[in-house]
Design brief:
By secondary structure, the protein is an alpha/beta fold. The chain folds into 3 domains: 108 residues, no CATH class; 232 residues, TIM Barrel (Alpha-Beta Barrel); 27 residues, no CATH class. The chain has a 9-stranded mixed sheet with strand order 1-2-3-4-5-6-7-8-9. The longest helix has 13 residues. Bound molecules: iron/sulfur cluster (SF4). The site of iron/sulfur cluster has 10 residues, from loops.
C-alpha cells in the first residue's frame, strides 16, 4: 500500500489488526484542547508553540515553590523547550513521570561532577571541518542542525544543541559536504544534529541530494527524535517524498519509554517504513525512567510492533549535569541478561558504552563462556544450563 493513503491514525486500521492497535494509546491535546486539528497536526505549529516558559509549564504540571526556583536556575543553563504534543504526554501530578523527567528541568542538573565533561565523546576534537566528526575509518557524523523539537534533559550534546551561536551555517554545511566529496574512504554518512528533521524540507532535500551524488557514499543515515517528540512531522507528504527520493535511508530514532509509543508515533514510524526507510531505535539508559528489564522489554516489544528495530541501549554519557540519570554499567548488562532468551533476539538491542575521550562504542553483555579447555568450550544458556561445544583443532 502507498504511504499517501495512510494519513491519519484512523487509516492505521487498514494495516493493523485491532488487538495490535489497542496497544497504542491515543493522545489528548491536554491544555491545547481548543486548538483545531489542522494546527495540532501541523509540525510547524508544534515548533512555533513549544513550551519554553514557566507560566505555560505551570498550566501543565503541578510545581512546588522550590521546583519553580530551581527551574529558573536550570533553564538558564540549558533552556527548556517541549512540543505541545510531547508535553501532552506528561502526567501532571506525577513528578516521576518519565516524559516529565526527560523534558522538564530538575535541580540535579546543577550538580556538575568532577568526572563530568563538556564533550565526553571528544566529537569536537575529531572534526576535520566544523560540523563534521570523522572518527571511524569509513563513516562520518554530519551535524546539520542545532535545533530539536524537544530539548532532552539527558542530552549528551548540550554544549551545541539549542545554542544559536553554534547554528549550522550555510558555509559549515558546504564545508562538510566538500570534506565528504574529497574523502573517498567515507562510505557511510550519518546526518544528525540536533535534529535534521527540524530543517526545512528544502534544506534537507538539498543536503541529502548532494550526499547522494557522491559516488563513494553508500549508506545514508538520519538520526532524529522527531518520531518520538514531534511525530506529526511525518504527516508531511513533502518530507516523505524527499525521503523516498533519496533511498536507501536508515533512520535511527530515540524512544526511551513505552509511554512514548502512542498511536501518533505508530503512524509516524509506519509512514517512514512505507516510504522505504529502515527505522532503528537508540535508547539511553536512564535512572528512574527505563532502568528495569520489564520497562525495557515492554519498550522493545512496542518498537517491534512499530516496525522499529531496537538497535542500541547507550550507557548514559559523562556529559555535564546529567549525573542523576546515570546508572551503574552493570544495570545495562543485567537488562540484557534478563532479556536474552526470554524474548526474541529481534527485540534485543546492543548495550554499549560510548568510550569517554572518543574511543568509540564498546559493546558489553553477560559472559556466556564459562569454561575453555583444549578444543572444548563450555557455554551457558539464558537458564544457566551448561553445554559443551567442540571446536576444530586448528583454524
Ligand atoms: S533529540 Fe537528541 S540531540 Fe536533541 S536534545 Fe534530545 S538527545 Fe539531544
Amino acid at each position: 500500500m502507498d504511504w499517501k493513503k495512510i494519513r491519519t491514525t484512523f487509516d492505521l486500521e487498514q494495516l493493523y489488526p485491532h488487538h495490535i492497535l489497542e496497544k497504542f494509546h491515543d493522545t489528548s491535546k491536554g491544555i491545547w484542547s481548543n486548538v483545531p486539528d489542522e494546527n495540532w497536526y501541523d509540525w510547524k505549529w508544534q515548533l512555533k508553540n513549544r513550551v519554553e516558559d514557566i507560566e505555560t509549564l505551570k498550566k501543565i504540571i503541578n510545581m512546588t515553590k522550590e521546583e519553580e526556583v530551581n527551574f529558573e536556575k536550570c533553564s538558564a543553563k540549558f533552556k527548556m523547550s517541549i512540543t505541545p504534543y510531547y508535553a501532552s504526554l506528561i502526567d501532571s501530578t506525577d513528578s516521576n513521570c518519565p516524559v516529565r523527567m526527560q523534558s522538564v528541568p530538575y535541580s540535579e542538573e546543577m550538580n556538575i561532577l568532577d568526572t563530568d565533561m563538556e564533550d565526553p565523546l571528544a566529537e569536537e576534537r575529531d572534526m576535520p571541518v566544523q560540523g563534521l566528526t570523522h572518527r571511524y575509518p569509513d563513516r562520518v557524523l554530519f551535524y546539520a542542525s542545532n535545533d530539536c523539537p524537544t530539548l532532552c534533559r539527558h542530552c549528551t550534546r548540550k554544549r551545541k544543541v539549542a545554542n544559536p551561536s553554534a547554528e549550522s551555517q550555510k558555509k559549515q554545511i558546504e564545508d562538510a559536504l566538500d570534506y565528504i566529496r574529497q574523502t573517498k574512504t567515507v562510505r557511510d554518512v550519518i546526518v544528525s544534529g540536533g535534529d535534521p528533521l527540524c530543517l526545512s524540507n528544502q534544506k534537507l532535500d538539498y543536503i541529502l541530494g548532494e550526499i547522494r551524488t557522491i559516488k563513494h557514499v553508500e549508506v545514508l543515515r538520519l538520526g532524529t527524535r522527531n518520531p518520538c517528540t514531534l511525530p506529526m512531522r511525518m504527516r508531511d507528504d513533502e518530507l516523505l517524498s524527499i525521503l523516498e527520493k533519496h533511498q536507501p535511508i536508515h533512520l535511527n530514532t530515540h524512544y526511551n519509554h513505552p509511554k512514548e509509543c502512542t498511536r501518533e508515533a505508530l503512524l509516524a514510524t509506519t509512514r517512514l517504513s512505507m516510504a522505504g526507510c529502515t527505522v532503528g531505535n537508540q535508547t539511553v539508559l536512564l535512572k528512574g525512567i527505563n532502568d528495569s528489564p520489564e520497562i525495557m522489554t515492554e519498550l522493545c516489544h512496542k518498537l517491534l510492533l512499530m516496525k522499529v528495530r531496537p538497535y542500541y541501549i547507550f550507557q548514559c554519557d559523562l556529559s555535564e549535569g546529567i549525573g542523576h540519570f546515570r546508572t551503574k554499567v552493570s544495570k545495562g548488562v543485567e537488562i540484557i541478561e534478563k532479556m536474552r532468551g526470554w524474548t526474541s533476539g529481534l527485540a534485543i538491542p546492543h548495550f554499549v558504552v560510548d568510550a569517554p575521550g572518543g574511543g568509540g562504542k564498546i559493546p558489553l553483555g553477560p559472559n556466556y563462556v564459562v569454561g575453555h579447555k583444549d578444543n572444548k568450550l563450555t557455554l551457558r544458556n539464558y537458564e544457566h544450563k551448561e553445554y559443551d561445544y567442540y571446536e576444530p583443532e586448528e583454524d
